Amino acid sequence: MLPMSSSVRRFLLTKAKTYVRTVTTSKPATSFDDDQIKQNYDIIIAGGGMVGCTLACAIGKNSLLSHLKVLLLEGSPQQKYEFKPEYSNRVVALNQNTKSLMNSLEIWQHIEKARVQPVRHMQVWDASSNALISFNSADIMDDDVAYIVENDLLLHAVNKELTSPDLKNVNIVYGAKISGYELSKHEALTRNLIKMNNGDTYSCKLLIGADGANSAVRNAMGVQYLSWNYDHMGVVATLHLAEETENTTAWQRWLPTGPVALLPLDSKRSSLVWSTTVDHAKQLLQLPEEQFVDALNDALWKQYPHSSAVEACTSWFGSCLKSIGLPDGAERQLPPSVKSIVSASRAAFPLGFGHSTRYVAPGVALVGDAAHRVHPLAGQGVNLGFGDVKDLTEFLADAIYTGLDITHHSWLERYESSRQRHNVPTQIAVDALYRLYTVDLPPVVLVRSLGTQLTNALQPIKKLIMSHATT
């Protein structure tokens, strides 16, 4: 396990408070005869969402792992994908590292043939002070900042490769209802049992939990899970813009109640992610469409009260930056106006934080939301999950290459250490940003505004931020 500093440990335990819970497997292990087991597998992946399906595809396509028998258990029935002219209201912002993973698995070609929108600019600004930070792909990196893809399109692209005739070592069971797990406690005698509602039982050496934030695999492991709710919801919708533009900019404005973000879809449409209080979110869902559009344009354009002391300090600091040849943040792009929303595209989902203190146990590993959950304000949630997929596949392939068993503690601990070293700082940073920007007291506004101005002025810091966000 990745060693944490005492300050980080105190932070997580303090924030968790009563949300910390230790869960153990609900049933004691029971001995099974081989004739009671329907099928034995090397690896079983519980959960067939975007991360779970991509992991199955990555294992199946890796030449060192192609001899392993893999089973993917997906709780939902198999659904036929239909390409529709109108965009879905659920999208993800994929970073460069995720694009590279998708390219290596030949998934990206299916996405490009359908539709994907590059993000080449980002502008984030504070409604309480107008301090901003902007990112331009041409200045900071050699490629686009991110790519906006619909969730269902991404899953369809993954499934096209996953169900390819060339991928012969991966089986999929749709509509799989799992009643419980009996996990091995010893590395040397690893055999995990997965019991289904229909009476079937599968066994495997390595069980991988890709079953989301309420992971039953994680619960069966009996590890601590630190979690809390933000008492906020994310309101999503598909928007029609007032004017047709190139639309390659992602916009995010920090309101006193939380961030509102527009993600580009094409020249005329954007996707909304609006984080706000639960009561306000419910009100937004019930508003007539025209009133909802008015409320959204107010959120993007309305002038909120500013502290005169904060304005004086930020103005002086901007002048100092300009005097030494650094950007003062005065130049900015204006966000688009929203003309209308796509009917029935509004929805909302709760926002929260989650951290599993362990990602692995004998013969078990966690990936994606089963291991970690973050606020969507930085668009990092699914990218962290795809990072898990990349590292787990590589460490497992290295273990096979060096003659280790697929459940050997050495590679599992390397996987856990590698991912926690990346995921935990990202989670803490995102949580800290959320808390910093939802406080409207003038001293706090002043500190974050000066910090934003300084970060925006220093190109090396912006490059460092983007470098971490894209890996």
Automatic annotation (TrEMBL):
Pfam families associated with the record: FAD_binding_3 (PF01494)
Pathway(s) per entry: Cofactor biosynthesis; ubiquinone biosynthesis
PROSITE patterns tied to this protein: UBIH (PS01304)
EC assignment: 1.14.15.45, 1.14.15.46
InterPro entries: FAD-bd, FAD/NAD-bd_sf, Ubi_Hdrlase_CS, UbiH/COQ6, UbiH/COQ6_monooxygenase, UbQ_mOase_COQ6
Entry keyword annotation includes Phosphoprotein: no
Keyword flag Transcription: no
Membrane association type: Peripheral membrane protein
Every FAD-binding domain range: 41-282, 357-422
NCBIfam families on file: COQ6 (TIGR01989), Ubi-OHases (TIGR01988)
Family: Belongs to the UbiH/COQ6 family.
Stated name of the protein: Ubiquinone biosynthesis monooxygenase COQ6, mitochondrial
Organism: Galleria mellonella (Greater wax moth)
The gene coding this protein: LOC113519609
